[in-house]
Amino acid sequence: MVKIHEKYMSRAISGAKNGLKSHFPNPMVGCVIIHENKIIAQGITSPYPGPHAEVNAINQVKDKSILSQCTLYVTLEPCAHYGNTPPCANLITSHNIPLVVIGVLDPNPKVAGKGREILEKAGTKVITNVLEKDCIALHKRFLINQIAKRPYFILKWAQTTNGFIAPPIKNRTPYWISSLLAKQRSHQWRSEEHAILIGANTLLHDNPRLDTRLWHGEAPIPIYIDKDLSVPTDRSLFGIHEKIYCLVGLKHAPSILKVRNIHYLPIDFNKELSKQISAALFEQKISSVIVEGGAKTLNLFLYTGLWDEIRLFETNGNINEGVKAPSFNATLSSEESLDNTILKVYKKYPLKTTLI
Length: 356
Description:
Order of helices and strands: HEEHEHEHEHHEEHEHEEEEHEHEEEE
Strand content: 25-35%
Structural class: alpha/beta
Strand order of the largest sheet: 11-12-10-9-8-13-6-14-17-16
Oligomer: single chain
Distance between the termini: 25 Å
């Protein structure tokens, strides 16, 4: 029976991975409904503020009477509160579904075991923590949002094997360290995350577009750090993106709130920055951030340990002077070859010890 549960939970996870990131700030949940060992319905979370995965799956079942003979698999505990939609736990019990299998419990204080409690009080049998590690990985952004009250941070950069991320500014023509496959992977990641953060120097000297032109998908919201408003707004990204955030010094706060598509977020540059940036972006409901800036911006997060993943491209290069790559201490999680580039990933998983 355990293997059967893992089989169908795996299917729910796979379905959720195919979802678009338009579900933010909700988690992208997957759900399948089984009748007589066959999948009869499958649902994922709709674009915000639409129905949740359980609702979408149940709505696919034409003959609702058979739900009383079904098992429902869901990657995250069904919600127990009224928000933009009614509680999914109540919907499940209203159809007398006898068995619900949950991947991971929801640490949101509005749920936090209450969904399971509603189900069990109604006589539904509940099994929890099936493929829990996989479900934690699926919901990593949402779980960090709920547990740590901040966005999920991914630090990403490319460096040469001798430890440089860019040549000197005087020699700074367009210079690609990583392979085309690595660049495509970077654009895929952009399509998966909510926002992308760079510093003023990167915006000034590299003029990045921060789009997904090498991958099909929606671009992340660009964020840049510019204490003194030193970056002219003729950079490429200002004409591409509908919404941009600028982290600016406090002295500019009284006079600037929004100019065209730029939203200004004031922070105190006389104090530690990474936690202020985290708090400011969380207040804007930013779920996840790729930090893709230069060494100075990356080090803001490395020095305070405010990161969840590091994605590092490494390749042979002919840079012998310039900007040194950041240094850090972390355990390698995985390694992959992308043509002449090696992708090294470091993660702070698991989150198990912080979950309810």
